[in-house]
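example protein:
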Amino acid sequence: MFARTLSLFLATVALAACVSTPRQVAQPRPAPAPARVQPVPPPLAPRATNVVPQGLRDELAQLWRSFPGKTGIAVRRIDGDWVVGHRGGELFPQQSVSKLWVTMAVLEKVDRGELSLDTEVTITPEDLTLFHQPLAARVAREGTVRESVRTLINEALTASDNSANDALLRTAGGPGVVNDFLRRKGLSSIRFGPGERLLQSGIAGVEWRQSLSAGRAFQAARERVPLDRRRNLLSAYVADPIDGASPEGIVDALARLARGELLSQSSTRLMLDTLGRTRSGPNRLKAGVPAGWQFLHKTGTGQDLPPVSTGYNDVGIMTAPDGTRYAVAVMLGETTAGIPARMQLMQAVSRAVGRWHQR
């Protein structure tokens, strides 16, 4: 009995030894949260050269809307591919802005070897014009004056001397030669008129005779024209100017000049250097050009019949310190605004170009 009980006990122990305690199964570790990836900003794109800065567009629009009269504005980035403005495709009286095309026609003849900058031109009392002509004082003293083409270019552009310009026009071959130059060069929306004497006398309703070039003889003759006739002729001139040009046409031409597409390298340099010495209109576009910028330009000023003034213009090239160039044209076909307000408009335009450069 004892033996049987012992056997049963040993069997139970053996069976218990064969059963293991429950095995601990390793639980999977939670996956680490993914690291936060900071977005990499895209590289800065180069400043677009073919997109008009919106701020400039808005500012020019405001200036244009707030100024009384027929106003044209155009700004072209020369080293890019955009132009902005208002009434940019309409024709405006150029007045002395047209001296640009006379000089270019002469310089093309120099490039061809048909003229030299040292060629002398004779000016007598029969060659004098009217309005601003400092050369007339010398002719009055000396009777006959001989000046080089180089000197006449300088006086026509920097001092806007009408007699110097007409001497160049005569040397080039007349208005037909200038208009042919414009046509061949593809300078569309630019006309050249009949020359200073016939242009100004036609606007005023005065029959030209050479004695009107002396002193204030022309102004006296103009005063004798009936007021209604003068008013009608002046209005017709502004509406369809025989010497008309569009602001966009002018800034396109200035851009092509600056890029050397119209004249030889030496003639281009001479033209630009001379325009950089312009003495007329210091308080027009030039007064708004930022410090450190370069500026070259040509002004134009037409006739008045109070309270209206016509053909008050300034066109030029602004160059930023980084070399970026802008062609700018502000043309007042007619306005009742006084001279200070006209100057302020022009200054505001050139100031806006500088303000929105690189923005």
Remarks:
- The beta strands are 70-77, 82-86, 92-93, 120-123, 145-148, 244-245, 294-300, 304-305, 308-319, 325-335.
- The first strand starts at residue 70 and ends at 77.
